[in-house]
Amino acid sequence: xxxxxxxxxxxxxTGCTNYNDISNIAVVSSIGISVNGNNYNxxxxxxxxxxxxxxxxYTKTCTSxxxxxxxxxxxxxxxxxxxxxxLLILSNNLSKENYNQIFNFFLNEKSSRxxxxxxxxEHIDNKILETNTTDIKNMLSLSLSTNGLTKDVTLTDIIxxxxxxxxxxxxxxxxxxxxxxxxxxxIYDENKILTSEESLAINIIKNNIxxxxxxxxxxxxxxxxxxxxxxxxxxxxxxxxxCKYYGNNKSDKNNLENYLTKxxxxxTQNNKNNYFKYLLYKYEKNNNDDIKYKVNIDIDYKQxxxxxxxx
Amino acid sequence: MKEEILNKCGNSTDIIIRTINLxxxxxxxxxxxxxxxxxxxxxxxxxxxxxxxxxxxxxxxxTIINLIKNSLTGSSINELQTIDEAxxxxxxxxxxxxxxxKNILSIExxxxxxxxxxxxxxxxxxxxxKDSFTENFNTNLGLIRKRIxxxxxxxxxxxxxNESHTKIGICYINGIAEKSLIKKVMEKIIKINNDIIIDGxxxxxxxxxxxxxxxxxxxxxxxxxxxxxxxxxxxxxVDNSPTVLIIPTFFIDFFHTPDDYYQKNxxxxxxxxLRFLAFLIAIFLPxxxxxxxxxxxxxxxxxxxxxxxxxxTIVPFPAFFEILIMIIAFEILRESDIRxxxxxxxxxxxxxxxxxxxxxxxxxxxxxxMIIVVALSSISALVFSYNSIVNLIRYYRYLxxxxxxxxGIYGLFIGFGILVINISSTTSFGFPYTYPFVPFIKTxxxxxxxxxxxxxxxxxxxxxxxxxx
Lengths: 311, 469
Hints:
The complex is a heterodimer of chains A (311) and B (469).
Chain A (H helix, E strand, L loop, with lengths): L1 H12 L11 E12 L2 E9 L7 E8 L2 H12 L2 E3 L5 E5 L4 H13 L8 E5 L4 H5 L2 H14 L8 H11 L1 E9 L3 E10 L3 E2 L2 H10 L6 E5 L2 E15 L2 E12 L3 H20 L3 H11 L7 E12 L8
Parallel strand pairs in A: 1-4, 1-5, 5-6, 6-7, 12-13
Antiparallel strand pairs in A: 1-2, 2-3, 7-8, 8-9, 10-11, 11-12
Chain B lengths: L1 H7 L6 E8 L2 E8 L5 H13 L10 H11 L5 E4 L2 H8 L3 E6 L3 E6 L28 H9 L7 E8 L5 E8 L5 H12 L9 H8 L9 E3 L2 H10 L2 E5 L5 E4 L17 H30 L7 H12 L5 H21 L2 H21 L5 H14 L5 H21 L1 H16 L2 E2 L2 E2 L9 H4 L24
Antiparallel strand pairs in B: 1-2, 2-4, 3-5, 4-5, 6-7, 7-9, 8-10, 9-10, 11-12
Helix pairs in contact in B: 5-8, 9-13, 9-14, 11-12, 11-13, 14-15
């Protein structure tokens, strides 16, 4: 009898209520959220199982995100299923409170996995939702490998950053005539669009970059096999950035080192560096705001002899 | 005396009496024309007796018995004492000779009522021997003896079935098979008290405990039975049964075929792994499909999920009923395919498999993916030629399907756990079913789900542990 009770108990633990017939679900591909006064505008792109009509975009304006999703579910007569979601698009005008509500919604939604790319955009419209999510992801990874601008950031990364540093860097995309990656936008404790140099600096500091290009005096320099090591001691933070540069002129090494030192030093001086504060607290148990930075850039110059003719 | 025999046989029309008069002596030959060979009766009984020349009119009865005995050319002649014995011999195919209504002789004149040695039809081999057991006890024993020409191959015969009087032969190799195993088998067989034993299946039923897992293996291949005997197992030959029973049997045995020993090890390893995969697919695929589509669509890639949704939207039933309908339809199709005559078999397969399936999809009753899932699962089960393991797969498939429908992936793991517990808690005649993994026997593990090297001798270390090797 004990065995029977045990089986019933285990059965009850499993949550039979999770049963979902696949014909009753609407697979969501991407979601856009913007704010208009006290209302949320929610854009949902639902993938169509009918091959002729590939996707449908639905819009709803409500006082909360949950309400919008409930109304959309009733309208479609299907449960909105977020596990296959690829992209979350947030508008530029969201406040700290709005972010809290959005994150709570996705954390509480059972079918959400949080592994989707998140971007901030100047203005949300159907056009950006119609854009293929793979194209947007490719654009982000290309911007990192060429200009060192932005990394593909997921909602889980953002929530982790906010919990740790109270600040997160989200790719910012401009969609005026064309869709362009501009760099990062900081959210939560700080609300600021970073310049391309600042975006490059934070990517270097957070060791996001492996390969990238720098344009100086109309010349393009390609840096490879890059990595960053941050050292913390008392109030001193030492940022050590190493890269290999294959070129023909050894003086380029100094120019590059000076340029990178300048942008990282400028970034540390002009931005709220919650990231470093967190590191200080984590490793040194130190809450001191007076952080001293030391930037070491080491470009390993290699003579590029492939295909070159020397006099 | 002959009237009494006829009366006891209910004056059956197949009981024939031929009376020969030799001077003053009356010789009655009684036989069953269905069980005896007419040519044997003519050549070994009637012709020698009718050619006897008796000149002395006052010849003594004992002398005439000896004269007849000496004249008969049959191989087996016995003198019987009672009428009941005579009747029993008639129905064994013997001819009874009653001399002057006093003395009874019996001579073997059995007709061959079996179909001869045919190709094995169920356990088909590509490169190995093609012969299979028949319904004849002696032929079956001969097929084994042909492979093991050894005086240590012992056969103990007993008769079972209160009404059928079926001959049962218990074969083993003396010096290899464990005495305790032989004793246990004998004890269990003697206890069988059925009225009728038509086939080996009756014995299997009596020897097996109530579990899904088969504890007695049945084979129609003499080479497999010979292998089993050399391993130290016991074989049971049942008269009128085209299969021989092998005791004990292990779970791993159902993944082996005689062909495994007639080809290169690498090929055998590949096919054995394939069989194991087929076993898992056959049991788990329908349950996995249900659990993934009903509880965990997350696990399905987006494009495939959209495809499945599109296919499923037109079907009016929940996925579980859809799959249940398909599995039951396939079971009916399989059962009808076995029973119907070969001549119409192919047309039924085409009608059932292709036309019915296509029509069901067109009518929107079944989705195409469901046909793929059920067909793949059912075809995987057909990899196994042993009916007992096919039945095991069938029952577990239903169990896993229900668990998957109720509990999702979690149910699948529960089902897998039940299967493992069932296998590991089963024994066959006291030997663990999980051999050679538990107990771990390294030499035999190398010939289990894989085959790494050929063993010099076939002896099973578990079955022959008390024997000198």
